[in-house]
Design a protein that fits this description.
By secondary structure, the chain is an alpha+beta fold. Helix content is about 25%, strand content about 25%.
Length: about 160
């Protein structure tokens, strides 16, 4: 696809920006991970006191007619964490009201994103939760509500390089 912003060709199948762990875990000294962190690809806990879930932050791309999703982590309250675990394989999880959460990663090139408030929606037992930002004077909120361009996708994906 030829980008309307820069005139370059950007492949439609580019990878999406994905964070493998919450920043709080990445910031720990490596030798502490074994004793303080319990994790898998979708959930994590530090000392059994801080709880994190992985999901997606969808950003609409009107020119493509689809969403670009940033794979990101949120920090949740203990009761939310255990409720989500309880519902993890349930088809009925989509009927659950949204949960309050906070972004747990700093997205490159943006003002601080750690701690931004989101509503976490469960989407089904075979998909990760979706995160929808609470209204804020922040560029990522504007991108989620107004959409982004294919060129912006390329900018996000450049962080893989």
């Amino acid at each position: 696809m030829k980008c309307s912003s820069c005139g370059e060709e950007h492949p439609d199948d580019e990878l999406e920006l994905t964070f493998r762990r919450p920043d709080a875990i990445i910031d720990l000294p490596a030798e502490e991970w074994l004793t303080r962190v319990k994790e898998n690809a979708d959930r994590a806990a530090i000392d059994g006191e801080r709880f994190f879930l992985r999901g997606t932050l969808p950003l609409p791309v009107p020119e493509l007619g689809s969403d670009y999703a940033i794979g990101i982590w949120v920090e949740v309250a203990p009761d939310t964490f255990w409720r989500v675990i309880e519902l993890w394989t349930s088809e009925d999880q989509v009927d659950e009201p949204p949960f309050a959460a906070m972004l747990a990663n700093q997205i490159p090139s943006l003002p601080p994103t750690l701690g931004l408030q989101v509503a976490m929606r469960l989407t089904g037992p075979t998909t990760r939760p979706e995160f929808h930002l609470a209204a804020a004077e922040h560029p990522i909120y504007r991108e989620q509500t107004a959409g982004i361009t294919a060129h912006r996708i390329h900018e996000y994906n450049a962080f893989f390089a």
